[in-house]
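Per reviewer request, we include the raw input and output of the structure prediction for the construct analysed in the revised manuscript.
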Amino acid sequence: MKFSQLAILTSVFFFILATVWMFFTEQLLSQWGIESTSGTGVVSRRSAAFFAGIGVMCLFARNAEPSLTRYALAAGISTISIILAVLGIVEWRERHVNGQILFAVFIELFLGIAFLLSNRSAKKNFTDKRDWVNNK
């Protein structure tokens, strides 16, 4: 998948996530088997801001040429996605959430791997590896 396609898909997905976490917190939490409290609501709505912000970054970066900046954006999204997937699996194994979270884990793993692969091809386009180290 091309970086531009992946960035657009991710921005749409993250805008949907931001909307769900902002306005439908209780429904998502109950789907995962988590009791909705004022505390979980606060954390969920604040997380929505991060999803919206990452969606905006992906939307604006969709046509970026291979560069250190694009590499950093992809690496950051990969990191976020893979950590979320691991946390989802841990919470499921500890029975803090039900199996419905595995759908989110699947999407997170897909995004994490897809952005890692987009980085692999971007890094090949740089001729001097010192540019990566010296941030030039």
